């Protein structure tokens, strides 16, 4: 989000569309995410001239070309570093970072960790399709064990990274999840934008060419009620049409699924979602899908002072009462004066 | 220094009758923990204040705290100063101050025959002799008979002098360097007051330590004055060097670059963003700039070299002057991002303080081996201007020039210095900022009349594209590293587009050659039998060598190139006006290859890759050989120079 947003602008979805032909594969989940963003920005009163989309490399990173804002399509994995420079140079800009599972967690994992721990005020949208799309289908750091791909014909053997657990572990103060075609996605984006500091949003995105329907187990409309746990601050963690809920297993210090009878979630011990509870957030992002539903929505949201605010404050303090006098700076330290006539050089 | 005055062609030596010499080379050598760099630094300051010209060469091990007393833990500081113009740290020392056996062993071979050794005999016990791999005490076995030897127990004398302050033995011995400095100040007739003021300031939180160090300094000075020593310990007075009137200070390369960047940003009327990652020997620039925030400077210590340059690019995109700095290995990591800055045509200054490579190479030693990397070291056709500083004070002007080209041409610019320039100090005539020509950066804020659509890749007369800051209403556009159409900047990688854009990027950088001063002749005249061509920190030794050769009547001139890419337009014809072209470089002949490629001249290499700067004598003999028909070759590692490799590994 951006503390210094002037007057809210009135825009429509059309104002955020460029004249560029969108070049994602027909049916790609990226289209739905693009629409969700273009729908969200007018609602939050964003100003296209003050908005910057910064991306790395990969299918997702083509995103800035389709947004009628300022956009910077950078190099593989480095978008967080570029965005850091943009925001430090002009903190008034509203900066969105678009990345993917390969760009943000593999080649750019280092920068992702540091932008999160520094807490730069920015929205980070990580499109997770569990595959390298633009390089034609190799397995990615989020691919599940056994993923067959051109580079893993016998199936991948390394354990996948969990983006939200990575983010929390890196010190993120806002962690949320959504998926491409979800109607809830704009609400998640809005919450991320409202958060002062680095907002990390993992968006499950369907790569229809190389990893088709890999998220169908929870994202498919049919049976979604049983497989999706939408988290809302202050509300009990209920799913399956309120017949099931998440409770704390006090003995094991883990979460467990409990049955809720006659809507009496309190009796079942279902816990109320508190976005400021970091311990529960750690458990939610680690819930194994299958025994548990997929935790979605705003998992954690507890702001801390931002990096750029601290930098600006230190710059201000260091400059207090000091004039930028170049002549004085050049003549600093112990000096001596030579008088007389210069001799001619030979 | 820039102006050259007459100097006797002979190596500096004492005048007849015991009178003072016109230039003296002193090397302080001791254990890493002995404070030799500090001693050297303060001696430098007192020398500058006395009005002598000077050049220094600090040499320290890569290890932070090497085991005490060992050969690889020796730290040394050499200063060449005199009443004439000084441009190198001197070929061989006249005086060696050795604080322990290891320091003596690694440095004594460098001393001129008949030179003076001052040794702390208190450190020449059995244990230290064994660590330095001495079978017998060299102070006693006559092995130093080629030199004059003054050995006395500096350790004991220091302990005695600081006794009243009640320091522990270890702390008291730390004052040894000030005792030694006091003696050196006496030898060269230097004022102690500035050092005393400095000590009082340095130890203002611990006045006892200040007083102890001052007492040691005074004791060393008094020792010189009162000890009835017969023999070599004499007092010298070197007359101040005649130089242009004005205000002077000493400056190291790292300081000069930092100041030049500040000045450059001010002249461009831009705030500066500096992204850096710690690396030897480039970190000093970050350390300087971080203290200058009132000049609109934001510094950012990034998580790695790549993030450092990327953040600088992001800041440039947002309308500041992005700057990053590193050394060879870090520059290698930044390569891809430089390509992005070239492709998106954003201003950026990249400072490369070169060191010996490849890989980790020689972190604290100097080399000029990143020239290919600077000019060619990126994927694709990625032209980028490169400027090379020749001395600490020249680095100031070069930094301003880098800022000017970066902002006027919307391009990254690399500024090359090296470990020698970064650490070395020399007197610098403080410039008057009013004498600089401003080059205010311009931002495009409205669409030019008649343009139907916004053209972020339109061209001005210099072929630069407009700089449009995000946040400007109605000017939204997208940039990126992918190939784009001329004008609009829309993604377009059709064959004609890539060819047109590749040509545009090349033509833009080539065109800078029209906007830089024509190549001059530093010494001598155009045309003749031999020209010695240099770039970077070889300026000093080449200049002195050419001057000495000319004094002997040899037909040789010097050309020194600051703009190593693009090259000055007249350089080719200038080089062709000579029969022979000799290119001394601290690499295996990189600039030689560039010159051959660009101008089809038969440039001959003179290479030195021992991590040491050229000595004047090495270039002088190469000049004589070239005029005798044997140009070029390789200069062997010089065991008499810092660091003495053969002495360390006999």
Automatic annotation (TrEMBL), chain A:
InterPro entries: 2-oxoacid:Fd_oxidoreductase (IPR051457), THDP-binding (IPR029061), TPP_enzyme_TPP-bd (IPR011766)
Span of domain Thiamine pyrophosphate enzyme TPP-binding: 57-203
UniProt keyword Oxidoreductase, yes or no: yes
First and last residue of the signal peptide: none
Keywords: Oxidoreductase
Protein known as: 2-oxoacid:ferredoxin oxidoreductase subunit beta
Organism per entry: Novosphingobium tardum
TrEMBL record, chain B:
Family annotation (Gene3D superfamilies): 3.40.50.920, 3.40.50.970, Pyruvate-ferredoxin oxidoreductase, PFOR, domain III
Transmembrane segments: none
Keywords: Oxidoreductase
Organism (species): Novosphingobium tardum
Domain Pyruvate:ferredoxin oxidoreductase core: 530-590
Superkingdom field: Bacteria
Pfam families: PFOR_II (PF17147), POR (PF01558), POR_N (PF01855)
Lineage per the UniProt record: Bacteria, Pseudomonadati, Pseudomonadota, Alphaproteobacteria, Sphingomonadales
Boundaries of every Pyruvate flavodoxin/ferredoxin oxidoreductase pyrimidine binding domain copy: 270-479
Region named Disordered: 1-20
Keyword Oxidoreductase: yes
The keyword Chloroplast is annotated on this UniProt entry: no
Protein name, per record: 2-oxoacid:acceptor oxidoreductase subunit alpha
Domain Pyruvate/ketoisovalerate oxidoreductase catalytic: 33-221
InterPro entries found in the cross-reference section: 2-oxoacid/accept_OxRdtase_asu, PFOR_II, Pyruvate:ferred/Flavod_OxRd, Pyrv/ketoisovalerate_OxRed_cat, Pyrv_Fd/Flavodoxin_OxRdtase_N, Pyrv_flavodox_OxRed_cen, THDP-binding, Transketo_C/PFOR_II
